[in-house]
Backbone:
């Protein structure tokens, strides 16, 4: 049994009570007044019992409890708040731990005003995680390198229209993510809308582990490190890429955060620390508590020329990294304006294994900037309408310029 308190409880209880009154015959005037709830029994308990016993359409107690939770979350006005079933929450934790079985996409929401990153094909992202609301179209926010989705040609920005033979109109991100998951080696058909044309892909689900960091060599001893999401262990992998064979990146590093919807704030701090010697990475402000200064975890590479690639899909924890490195004069930002999500979410487990996720705080970059609703404007802008390769080429040109300004003794 769920018990709730406070302002959200009163609002939700009132709404349920009004619905119950109409169901009891206020509209037709055909039934007598019911007895008041027994002492000690909550109004929600009474409403749920009466709806369950007397409504024309059958509904389970569990469905009513979940609807009540959804109502309370909506009352908060927190667009990132959400409810996870026990299975969804287990999948969500598995994704943040870098383990899941799926097709390799992170999902987001898009409406007429534009889209924002939200979930993975296992559920959840952000700093600490993000959610999307129902009633909006679901799009691909990020595609994991080497995944079934990437091999098939799924692209960031594709709007999902069907999973299997089911149209997903009106589905929220979690429901689409759940439909994409399944046992390894099983097939799922994904249909997307891309610039008004329909594309259909048959994808084979695979067990995925720790694939959110990929490292590849570029010309002139440059290296590109792509981070698809900040799942557990990503910071360690980025640091390892810098310490292993440093000669491979003596010409500079491109840190590619395009399409990165966020993830664990601690991993974002560890990733930024890999490029900083010491000092502040981000300030975390939580209601009712003193602001927490999150500093460099251990000294990192402070000398290698660094460019960070961003776009409108760079959000939350990814913006922590980009904002920190820019504010600390450690990197040049290339690309298009980031999404602008400066809030932090935290899940709270309920008794049945399900969970609610709430916005619990906000972060600020080292210079004190709040990026919520604003995002980061790049130092070198590349139109979002241009092919992704163009931003990479511009970033390489910037790296060559940075390298040329270094004294000879620092050029490797």
Residues:
């Amino acid at each position: 049994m769920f018990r709730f308190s406070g302002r959200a409880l009163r609002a939700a209880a009132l709404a349920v009570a009004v619905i119950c009154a109409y169901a009891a015959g206020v509209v037709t005037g055909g039934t007598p007044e019911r007895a008041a709830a027994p002492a000690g029994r909550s109004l929600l308990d009474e409403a749920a019992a009466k709806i369950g016993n007397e409504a024309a359409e059958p509904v389970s107690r569990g469905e009513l409890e979940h609807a009540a939770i959804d109502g309370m979350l909506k009352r908060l006005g927190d667009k990132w708040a959400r409810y996870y079933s026990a299975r969804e929450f287990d999948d969500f934790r598995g994704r943040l731990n870098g383990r899941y079985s799926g097709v390799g996409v992170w999902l987001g929401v898009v409406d007429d005003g534009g889209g924002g990153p939200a979930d993975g094909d296992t559920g959840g992202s952000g700093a600490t995680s993000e959610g999307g609301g129902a009633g909006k179209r679901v799009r691909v926010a990020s595609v994991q390198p080497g995944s079934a989705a990437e091999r098939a040609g799924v692209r960031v920005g594709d709007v999902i229209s069907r999973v299997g033979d089911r149209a997903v109109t009106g589905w929220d991100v979690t429901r689409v993510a759940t439909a994409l998951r399944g046992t390894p080696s099983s097939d799922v058909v994904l249909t997307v809308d891309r610039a008004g044309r329909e594309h259909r892909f048959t994808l084979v689900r695979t067990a995925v582990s720790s694939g959110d960091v990929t490292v590849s060599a570029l010309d002139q001893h440059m290296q590109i490190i792509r981070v698809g999401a900040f799942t557990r262990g990503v910071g360690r992998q980025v640091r390892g890429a810098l310490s292993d064979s440093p000669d491979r990146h003596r010409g500079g590093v491109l840190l590619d955060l395009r399409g990165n919807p966020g993830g664990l704030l601690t991993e974002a701090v560890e990733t930024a620390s890999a490029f900083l010697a010491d000092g502040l990475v981000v300030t975390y402000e939580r209601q009712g508590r003193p602001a927490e200064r999150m500093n460099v975890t251990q000294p990192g590479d402070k000398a290698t020329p660094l460019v960070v690639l961003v776009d409108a899909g760079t959000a939350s924890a990814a913006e922590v990294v980009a904002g920190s490195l820019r504010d600390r004069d450690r990197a040049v930002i290339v690309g298009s304006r980031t999404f602008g999500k400066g809030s932090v979410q935290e899940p709270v487990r309920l008794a049945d294994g399900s969970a609610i996720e709430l916005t619990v705080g906000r972060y600020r970059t080292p210079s004190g900037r709040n990026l919520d609703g604003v995002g980061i404007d790049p130092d070198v802008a590349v139109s979002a309408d241009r092919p992704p390769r163009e931003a990479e080429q511009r970033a390489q040109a910037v790296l060559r310029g940075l390298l040329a300004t270094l004294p000879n003794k620092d050029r490797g």
In short: The radius of gyration is 24 Å. Confidence is low (pLDDT under 50) at residues 1-37, 111-135. The longest strand covers residues 355-364.
